[in-house]
Structure prediction request, 228 residues.
Amino acid sequence: MIAIIGAMDEEVNALLQLMEDVRVESIGKVKFYHGTLNSKEVVLFKSGIGLSMAAMSTSICLSHYSIDGVVNIGTAGGLKDNQNVLDIVVSDKITYHDFDISPFGNTRDFSSNNRFVFHSDESYIQKFNQLNKDERVWIGPLVSGNQFIYNEKQINDITHNFPEALAVEMEGASIAHVCSEFNVPFIVIRSISDLVKNPKNEMTFDEYLHKASERSAKFCYNFMNVIE
Ligand code: SAH
Prediction:
C-alpha cells in the first residue's frame, strides 16, 4: 500500500476526489482515507502544516500500516527565476533549510557533512521522469522548514546555503526523515503555488492553492501507473 500525504485540506481533497472505494479510519486526530487511486491501494491523510505535524502523522501511519512507499503531494514556493506557478517540482533529495548546528560541523547544504539529507528512491525518480517528459516538470533538490518563505532575508539565507534548491515547503524533509527511519521509499510531487521572490507571494499562494493542489494530485494519480 502507498501512503499519500498532503498538509492542507485543499491538497488532500484534490486527491480524495480522484480516489475510489474510500473508507475512513481515525487514529488520534489523524484521519486516514483508505481506498484506490488509479487502481492502486492507497491510504491518504492530512499531516497538518509544518515539520512536527508532518513527522508525527507520518510516524503514526508508518507504525500502524504496512506501507511500501510514500508520496508527499501539495504546494511549494518556487525558488528559481524561470519557474511558473503550477510547474511541478519533484524531489531527488531534500533537507531542512532551518536546521542549524553548524558550529558542531553539521553543514547547512546538500553535502554528506549534513546528516539530514534524504534521497528519494531512484526508481521512483526514473519512472516519474519516463512518465512526464513533455510537461513543465522540475526534478531536483527541495528544502523544508517551519516558515512560509516570502521575505528577502529568508530568501537570501536559503539561496546562499542551498543554491541548487528548486523549491521550498514546510513538510517534505520531515516526511522523508521518518521514511528513512522506517526504511520506506519516498518521493515529493508538488506543484508551485507561488514564486517566493515575487512581492505578495502569500496572495499568489491563496490564488493558486486549489489549482496547484489539483495539478499535484493529477501527477500523483498518473504516477500510480508506474509505482511498485
Ligand atoms: N494559509 C495557511 C498557511 C499556509 S503555509 C494557514 O493559514 O494555515 C504554506 C503551505 O504550503 C505549507 O504547507 C507549505 O508546505 C506550502 N508552501 C507553499 N508555498 C510556500 C512558501 N513560499 N514557503 C513555505 N511553504 C510553502
Observations:
- The chain has one domain: 2-223.
